[in-house]
Write a structure and sequence with these properties.
Low-confidence stretches of chain B: none
Order of helices and strands of chain A: HHEEEEEEEHHHHHHH
Largest interface: A-B, 50 and 34 residues
Number of strands of chain B: 0
Number of strands of chain A: 7
Oligomer: heterodimer
Distance between the termini of chain A: 46 Å
Helix content of chain B: over 70%
Low-confidence stretches of chain A: 35-43
Helix content of chain A: 55-70%
Number of domains of chain A: 2
Mean pLDDT of chain A: 86
Radius of gyration of chain A: 25 Å
Number of domains of chain B: 1
Order of helices and strands of chain B: HH
Number of helices of chain A: 9
Shape of chain A: globular
Strand order of the largest sheet of chain A: 4-3-7
Structural class of chain B: mainly alpha
Distance between the termini of chain B: 171 Å
Radius of gyration of chain B: 63 Å
Mean pLDDT of chain B: 86
Strand content of chain B: under 5%
Chain lengths: 345, 164
C-alpha cells in the first residue's frame, strides 16, 4: 500500500521536476532570442554536432575536461614499418597544432601513413582504456564477492556479497534458466559475465568524462559475435534441420523459407549488436543535446532548465543501462536456448 | 573512428579482454559461487525437510501421548470401578460372614445353653434323687415310729418329685 503511494508520489514529483525544467528551457530560449541575434557574429561558433560526436566516439586522447587531456599510447602496425608504439601527444606540437610524427599522420583520430596508406590501429584508445577500467572493476568486485563465499561458507552473505547475490541469482533463475533450459549451467559463466560487463559498462558510461564503451559498435559487435559463435557451436541436430531443411513446410515454400531461416541466423546477433549500440549512444546524444542548448543559447536560465531535464534523463539512463544489460543477456540466452532445444514436434 | 564502422583495434582489445574476463571470472568466481549457492540451496532444502519431518514426528508423538493418556485414563477408571466393586463384594461377603458367624454363635450358645440346661436338670435330678435318698434315709432312721406321718411325708416328697 505504502510503496504504491511512494511510487505514485515520486512519479508525480519527477513529472513536476521535468515540467519545471522544460519550462525553464523554453523561458530561457524566448528571453534570449533577441540577444542571441545580436551576439551571433561574436567569437568562434559553438558546434553542438561536433561536441556530441567528440563525446560519443572513440579517441586517442582522453579529454577529462576542457584543457585537461591524457595522451594515450598509440600502437600501430603496417607492412612497411612493422609494429610501433608511441604516445599520441607526438601528433601535436606546443601550439596544439596537428603534426606528422615518424611517418604517421593523424587526421580526426584516424591514423595513416604519410603516403596515405592505411595502418592497423591497435592503440589504447579512450574506449580501450575504459574497457580495461570496466574489466578491472568487474574483477575487483567479483573476486571480492567470491571471497565472501569462501569466508562465509555455510552462513548468510555479507557486505558486497549480499548485494550481488540476488542479482546473480536473478540472472541465473530469471534470464538464463528459463531461456536456455536444462542445459543452462554450461552457459552460465558467459551469461553472467556478459550481463555484468554490459551493465557496468553502461553505468560507467554515464559518469562524466567516461567513454561511451558499450555504445561503441565494435564492442557490441564482439559481444554479438560471441553469442553467434556460441549459438551455432552448441546448435544440435534439430537446430540445423530446422534452419537448413525447414521440416513440415510445403516443398514450394522451401526455397523462400530456407533463405529466410539462414538470414535469420545472422539477423539475430545483428539485432543484438545494433540494439545495445543504439540504446546507449542515443541516451548519450539526448543528454549531450540538452546540455548543448545551454551553450547554443548562451543562457544560464536555459542551462538551469537543461540541467534539471538532464538529471531526470540521467535517472532514466540508469534504468536503460540495466534494461539493456538484461535484454542483451536475455536474447543471447534465448538464441542459445533455441539452438539446444530438443525436438517438441 | 567513425560511429558506425567498428575499429579493428577496439574489436581486438574487446575480444581479448572480454575473453580473459570471462575465463578468470568463470574459474575463480562463477563456479565457486554456483557451487556455494547450490550447496546452500540444498542445505536449506534439507533443513526445511528436516523441519517438516520433525513437525510430523512431533504431531505423531503428541497424538501418541494423547492416546496413552486416554488409555491411562480408561485404565484408571477401570481399576477404580473394579476396586469399588471388589470393596462392595468384600463388604457384602463380610456382612454375610458376620451374620453366619453370629448365627453360628447364637446356635452354639443355644446348644450350649441346652446342654447346660440338660446337665443342670440331670444334676438337679441327681441332686433330687440323692436328696430323696437322704431324706428317705433320714426318714427311715428318725421317723420309723410314726407310720402315718411317714406316709404323708413320702407322699409329699413324691409330689414334689413329680412336679419336676
Amino acid at each position: 500500500m505504502s510503496t504504491v503511494f511512494i511510487m505514485k508520489y515520486s512519479s508525480v514529483c519527477v513529472n513536476k521536476i521535468l515540467k519545471i525544467g522544460i519550462l525553464f528551457l523554453f523561458l530561457g530560449v524566448f528571453l534570449i532570442q533577441p540577444s542571441l541575434a545580436a551576439e551571433g557574429s561574436e567569437g568562434e561558433k559553438f558546434n553542438p554536432a561536433e561536441m556530441i560526436n567528440h563525446h560519443i566516439r572513440d579517441s586517442h586522447i582522453w579529454e577529462i575536461t576542457h584543457g585537461v587531456e591524457v595522451h594515450l599510447p598509440v600502437i600501430v602496425y603496417s607492412k612497411e614499418k612493422g609494429l610501433e608504439m608511441f604516445s599520441s601527444s607526438n601528433f601535436f606540437d606546443d601550439e596544439h597544432n596537428s603534426v606528422s610524427y615518424n611517418g604517421y599522420v593523424m587526421d580526426h583520430d584516424h591514423i595513416t601513413l604519410e603516403s596515405g596508406e592505411s595502418v592497423l590501429d591497435f592503440s589504447i584508445t579512450k574506449n580501450v582504456l575504459f574497457l580495461f577500467i570496466n574489466s578491472g572493476i568487474m574483477l575487483l568486485i567479483f573476486l571480492s564477492v567470491a571471497r565472501g563465499y569462501r569466508k562465509n561458507e555455510g552462513r548468510a552473505p555479507r557486505g558486497i556479497q549480499s548485494f550481488f547475490e540476488p542479482i546473480i541469482i536473478f540472472v541465473r533463475d530469471e534470464i538464463v534458466k528459463p531461456n536456455i533450459g536444462p542445459k543452462y549451467e554450461k552457459y552460465l559463466p558467459y551469461m553472467l559475465t556478459l550481463f555484468f560487463f554490459i551493465w557496468f559498462g553502461n553505468l560507467l558510461g554515464l559518469f562524466p568524462a567516461a567513454a561511451n564503451l558499450t555504445g561503441n559498435i565494435a564492442v557490441t559487435m564482439v559481444l554479438a559475435v560471441l553469442t553467434f559463435i556460441i549459438t551455432n557451436f552448441s546448435g544440435n541436430k534439430n537446430y540445423w534441420k530446422h534452419n537448413l531443411m525447414a521440416p513440415g513446410v510445403p516443398l514450394a515454400l522451401k526455397p523462400i523459407l530456407i533463405p529466410v531461416e539462414i538470414i535469420g541466423m545472422f539477423t539475430k546477433p545483428f539485432s543484438l549488436m545494433i540494439r545495445l549500440f543504439v540504446a546507449i549512444t542515443a541516451g548519450h546524444i539526448v543528454i549531450l543535446s540538452l546540455l548543448a542548448m545551454a551553450f547554443i543559447f548562451q543562457s544560464y536560465i536555459v542551462g538551469f532548465g537543461a540541467a534539471i531535464v538532464v538529471t531526470v534523463i540521467n535517472f532514466i539512463e540508469i534504468l536503460v543501462a540495466s534494461i539493456q544489460a538484461y535484454v542483451f543477456t536475455m536474447f543471447s540466452s534465448l538464441y542459445i536456448g533455441m539452438a539446444v532445444a530438443e525436438d517438441h514436434h | 573512428m567513425d560511429l558506425l564502422t567498428p575499429d579493428i583495434g577496439l574489436i581486438f582489445w574487446q575480444f581479448v579482454v572480454f575473453m580473459a574476463v570471462v575465463i578468470v571470472l568463470a574459474v575463480f568466481v562463477w563456479r565457486p559461487i554456483s557451487d556455494a549457492l547450490r550447496a546452500r540451496e540444498g542445505k536449506i532444502e534439507d533443513a526445511l525437510q528436516a523441519a517438516e519431518t520433525a513437525k510430523e514426528e512431533m504431531e505423531q508423538i503428541k497424538s501418541d501421548n494423547e492416546y496413552l493418556l486416554q488409555e491411562a485414563r480408561a485404565e484408571r477408571d477401570e481399576i477404580l470401578k473394579e476396586a469399588i466393586s471388589t470393596a462392595n463384594q468384600i463388604k457384602e461377603e463380610a456382612k454375610g460372614e458376620t451374620s453366619k458367624i453370629t448365627e453360628k454363635m447364637i446356635s452354639d450358645a443355644r446348644q450350649s445353653i441346652e446342654s447346660e440346661k440338660k446337665a443342670a436338670i440331670a444334676e438337679v435330678k441327681d441332686l433330687v434323687s440323692t436328696l430323696s435318698i437322704d431324706i428317705a434315709e433320714k426318714l427311715i432312721r428318725e421317723k420309723l415310729g410314726d407310720e402315718k406321718s411317714q406316709k404323708t411325708l413320702v407322699n409329699k416328697f413324691l409330689k414334689d418329685v413329680k412336679v419336676n
